[in-house]
Amino acid sequence: MYIQRKIEQKIREISAVFPVVMVTGARQVGKTTLLKHLAEPERDFVTLDIPENRVLAVEEPVAFLQKHKPPLIIDEFQYAPDLLSYIKAYVDENKVCGSFWLTGSQNFVSMQNVSESLAGRVGIINLFSLSNSEITGTHFDEYSASPDTLLSRQKVSVKMNRQELFSHILKGGMPRLYEKPDIPLHDYFGSYFQTYLSRDIRELAQVADELAFYKFMRVCAGLVASHVDYTNIANKVGISVNKAKEWVSILVSSGIVILISPYFNNALKRVVKTPRLYFADTGLLCYLRGIDDAEVLEKLADSGEFFENYVVSEVYKSFTNTGLRPPLHYYRDTNNRKEIDILIERNGVLYPIEIKKNANPDKKAVKNFSALAPIGDTNIKIGTGTVICTANDLYPLGNDTWAVPHWLI
């Protein structure tokens, strides 16, 4: 069963203007399935996961491109990084848009090679696991605080009660789990994690101690919705601070975690400067936390942090799924300890968002929005504020702020 992806039209648009399209992301988020679904009948497919294909691409790239002619999908292209220079030569000579579609794990090595070899010739798409709007088929555009947009979404949205919400958080958005719903979550994510360790991590970071890296990921899973403290991580895992920084960077570059940077403005004084960490897929987060029951998840003392992670990842994916760079930040004042979970900055307007597991947030939920008042003296405007929560319906909180059910993201 193929689930339609929001990014499909954007890929078609990029393919019409660039000779190379690259779709990157974590393993099993649906990169290959997506491109195969979009491919024309004449487009060939080859995967470098197969050793004989990889050997030919690495050792005889000219012969590889003679055997596999464009239009072509090259799956897991990062296994033959030197092939990119030959692709560059081909597209420079032939100048045909959409000649090559590439998929690969999103890592430093592949991105650096693409940036150096195909600058100006490649359109890049970052793919994550399924968003809720993809699963329900509503396919919303990027998150908007506009009341008119939210009201129109409410007419077509699929409502989700708390039990359904936490079941969804537990399951996450990996396409395979929706194609084969009978797969036990623990078995799936156990296999997924082992594949991630044995293939991507060994090759990317040359991690010798898999047990230490597993412990590291579990520590990171316990730090969601909090600031990244590399010294704390290093002490808990028993590694150096530099190694902790390197490993966090690997999780980010391979599409496993998302870092949300703090918002800076000269009008705001003494703000926290470290990013916050979230997992891109809540199913993997729950697996690493050892949770396999939705009812238990909902009753946890820190279930609000799981909900916050879910909302941040959904808002983040709502932008990447439309081909946009997510303009997400957060705010925290080191003096007054005022926090705002998400700030979306678009076209000179800053939209504050609070995330509350509460089903009936009131005006107190937006009290920290006042911390942004000094920005009013700059050229940045403060837009409509929202509280994303577990409410049954959209409703106003007053002062240009709204309570927004999570299923309207």
In whole angstroms, how far apart are the ends?
24 Å
Please mark out the parts with pLDDT under 50 across 5 or more consecutive residues, or reply none: none
Total strands: 15
The dominant shape is globular
Q: On the 0-100 scale, what is the average pLDDT?
A: 92
Task: Tell me the strand percentage band.
Answer: 15-25%
| Helix proportion | 40-55%
Radius of gyration, in Å, reads: 22 Å
- What is the structural class? alpha/beta
Helical segment count: 17
For the biggest sheet, the summary is:
10 strands, mixed
Could you list some keywords that capture this structure?
alpha/beta, five-stranded parallel sheet, ten-stranded mixed sheet, 409 residues
Would you give an account of this structure?
The structure is a single chain. The protein is α/β, with parallel strands linked by helices. 41% of the residues lie in helices and 17% in strands. The strands form two sheets. Strands 6, 7, 8, 9, 10, 11, 12, 13, 14 and 15 form a ten-stranded mixed sheet that branches. It has a five-stranded parallel sheet with strand order 2-3-4-1-5. Strand 10 and strand 11 form a beta hairpin. Helix 3 packs across helix 4, helix 12 crosses helix 13 and helix 13 crosses helix 14. The longest helix is centred in the middle third of the chain and has 21 residues. It is globular and about 65 Å long.
